[in-house]
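Worked example 3 (structure in, sequence out).
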């Protein structure tokens, strides 16, 4: 019977370790989220994927022999 109770205590200790790890991870995530939010203040019309990009006309590729690779 002693073996069963030791297993129970080990199981409880393991579960407590899991809970502590989850709690620590949640705190790290929250801290990282707060840091990210403070680093880059954005205006409401800024889209994250286009910040810093400016639409400009691009050169149209020429249609000629020099535009194609030689065979």
């Amino acid at each position: 019977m002693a073996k069963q109770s030791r297993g129970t205590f080990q199981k409880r200790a393991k579960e407590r370790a899991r809970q502590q790890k989850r709690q620590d991870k949640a705190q790290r995530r929250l801290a990282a989220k707060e840091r990210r939010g403070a680093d880059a203040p954005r205006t409401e019309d800024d889209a994250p994927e286009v910040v810093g990009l400016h639409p400009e006309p691009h050169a149209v590729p020429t249609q000629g022999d020099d535009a194609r690779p030689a065979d």
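Notes: The radius of gyration is 29 Å. The CA atoms of residues 29 and 35 lie 10 Å apart.
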